[in-house]
Design brief:
This is DUF3784 domain-containing protein. With 260 residues, the chain is α+β, with helices and mostly antiparallel strands. The chain is 52% helix and 21% strand.
């Protein structure tokens, strides 16, 4: 039996949505690699040290000291290592390796920050202590910010039915009036996820907007690990799929939505 024209069009729209996100990723990361790679090439191979931030404005005696003390070579090594990590992250993202891009970029950031601290051993002695403190504070702020986002994102969204409204609290949360829900069903397993459009994904936690197989529009997921079943909620704004860590709580929510 030949597929219908409507079915082909729907599949084509899904492909276009995935390809659009993929193209945007390629453009942004491509330019980033080009600029970062160009800087690395000019500093390491062409020895254009004046491209280094602040180097051209230093007194001549400081420039001479930095060159003789190995600062320039150390910067070159750091640029080459971090560029390699950036390129690896790009490839992992291109081939859609699960969490490959996220892990790669996290490693890139850690190496870049640690390497910047390591560079201070080659700095002019009177500036080392100040730079250690400055970079240490910046590193601490970034680490705390990333840790906060990770903890906040990994935390299960609170979900309750109150005042004829399904209230989803936390990251990517929403308030959905029950009269806007057209269907509530159970499914045994999650559909295959093809792309993340605007969401959070860490380990077995999924929340936000994702594309799934055989769907032309993004759906919203609030998944807290594996469970014996998942609940699908069809609304005026699209499909929502969720589960709970506590399956008795999932049963209660399902019954409340069914009896709306």
């Amino acid at each position: 039996m030949k597929p219908s024209i409507l079915h082909i069009r729907k599949n084509f729209k899904v492909v276009l949505q995935v390809e659009k996100g993929h193209i945007i990723f390629l453009i942004i990361m491509g330019w980033t690699l080009l600029i970062y790679g160009g800087l690395t090439f000019l500093v390491v191979k062409k020895k254009d040290y004046f491209l280094l931030s602040g180097f051209a404005n230093r007194p001549e005696e400081e420039q001479v000291y930095l060159k003789q003390n190995g600062y320039i070579e150390a910067v070159g090594k750091l640029l080459m290592v971090t560029f390699s990590l950036l390129a690896l992250s790009f490839l992992l993202g291109v081939f859609s390796v699960p969490y490959g891009f996220e892990v790669g970029m996290a490693t890139f950031l850690i190496v870049l920050l640690a390497g910047t601290l390591w560079l201070q051993r080659y700095e002019v002695p009177r500036k080392r202590k100040r730079n250690y403190w400055l970079i240490g504070i910046i590193t601490g702020i970034i680490v705390i910010f990333i840790a906060f986002l990770s903890i906040f994102g990994y935390r299960e969204n609170d979900m309750v039915v109150v005042d004829n409204t399904l209230v989803i609290e936390g990251m990517y949360g929403d308030n959905i009036p029950l009269d806007q829900i057209s269907k509530v069903e159970k499914i045994d397993q999650l559909p295959e996820i093809t792309a993340k459009t605007n969401g959070f994904a860490m380990s077995n936690r999924l929340k936000g907007k994702f594309l799934i197989e055989k769907s032309e529009e993004s759906i919203r997921l609030f998944i807290a690990g594996k469970s014996s079943y998942y609940v699908t909620v069809e609304t005026e704004e699209g499909l929502i799929i969720f589960n709970r860590e506590n399956e008795s709580e999932l049963d209660r929510l399902y019954q409340q939505l069914q009896s709306r």
